[in-house]
Amino acid sequence: MSSLPPLTLVTGGAASGKSDFAESLARASSRPRFYVATAQAFDEEMEAKIEAHKLTRDEDGWTTFEEPLDLAGALPELPEGGVALLDCVTMWLSNLMLQNADLESEAEKLMSALEQLPYPLVIVTNEVGQGVVPDNALARRFRQAQGQLNRMIAARADLVVQVTVGLPLVLKGTLPEGFQ
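Given the sequence above, the corresponding structure tokens read:
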């Protein structure tokens, strides 16, 4: 299996299969695998979902790092020589909004961190621009910020893949050998 490019962005709608596809890209590497999880449990259902994901990743040989807010600080601290999966920047952005963080500043810090990573990184994000215009200001602000963040990451990414109904569509770059 060919190696991953330095930065890969995997996007798609909710439950599209994007996380599974992103995991398969990282899993195909012979490098140690690191999973950067951004979700926070605000209710019992989410807590159970996070715990189930942790167990599955542990059994599959991932080392998990939970970082809901400071991606720019956490990503450079991951061990060199591995491959990292960040799932997902949509949850990260939501977490920042809940903290009333400066979204533009946080996005710029993330972009700066992405340019200096010594390992391949696969980022998962939700595509939020294909639905209806949200009916409230907060949702419209989130949609706008997520769309901007997705465009910023895609501009820097070597490979951008959209996943729909579990099927990958390459938007930029070339999939590693074996994924054609």
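The chain is about 40% helix and 20% strand. Try to locate this feature in the token string yourself.
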